[in-house]
Amino acid sequence: MGANGAVALLTRYRALGSQRMVIVGSGDLGLRTAALALESGVAVAGIVEVAGAVRGDEAIARSLARRDVPFYTAHTIREARGRVGEIDSLVLVQIDGELKPIPGSEREITCDTVCLALGLAPNVELFPLVGARLAFVSALGGWVPEINDRLQTSVPTVFAAGDCAGVHDGMLANPEIARVQGRLAGLAAAESLGAAPGQEAGQRPR
């Protein structure tokens, strides 16, 4: 599963059935997901990173190491093992500077969940269906709807807020960002239908 889905299940719904998770990617997204998993009672069997060093926040990485979370830098997944629709373990392999597997370096890790923390992508499939224009903004995860300061898209009756309007590591650390956007978009939508502007009408997300 993706890290954003795991975070939602751990925080919003409290419904993640994992007991032992491996996280792929050691950026801030991966490290924060690992810390959240531990706080929620999910064991983290390892963090796998293709680069030769951890990429994310050093303080979080040290905290995870103190909690005995292993880091497998310069490693990648060679094979996932398990029954159909389930996973029982991963086979990792160490790689060299040219990203080639090093023979004899395989190791197997028992887990029931693989969490991909390799970056978030906005969920924008619905916008083209209603004719809303998209623009590519790398800092927000790729293609996102063009919106004005009222979170209104190029289609006057369509507004965007939260993950569909763009994603970044800060949203994982502070989910309040999406809630504020949603409230502002809701107010703007109501105003567009004739409702009187509310007290928060002047508050726009940065």
Q: pLDDT under 50 segments (min length 5)? A: none
Our count of domains comes out at 2
**Judging from the principal axes of the Cα atoms, what is the shape?**
elongated
Order the strands across the largest sheet as they lie in space: 3-2-1-7
User: What is the rounded distance between the termini?
Assistant: 29 Å
Name given to the CATH architecture of the largest domain = 3-Layer(bba) Sandwich
SS-derived structural category: alpha/beta
CATH superfamily of the largest domain: FAD/NAD(P)-binding domain
At the first level of CATH, the class of the largest domain is: Alpha Beta
Classify the helix fraction into a percent range.
Answer: 25-40%
CATH fold description of the largest domain: FAD/NAD(P)-binding domain
| Number of beta strands | 9
Report the order of strands and helices: HEHEHEEEEEHEEHH
**What is the count of helical runs?**
6
User: How large a portion of the residues is in β-strands, by DSSP E?
Assistant: 15-25%
Mean pLDDT score: 89
Largest sheet: number of strands, sense, barrel closure? 4 strands, parallel
Describe this structure in words.
- The longest helix has 17 residues, at 176-192.
- Helix 1 packs parallel to helix 2 and helix 2 runs parallel beside helix 3 (58-66).
- A four-stranded parallel β-sheet has the order 3-2-1-7, with helices on one face.
- A hairpin with a 7-residue loop joins strand 4 (75-81) and strand 5.
- It has helices spanning 3-11, 28-39, 58-66, 126-130, 169-173, 176-192; strands at 20-24, 43-49, 71-73, 75-81, 89-94, 107-110, 113-116, 134-137, 142-145.
- With 206 residues, the chain is α/β, with parallel strands linked by helices.
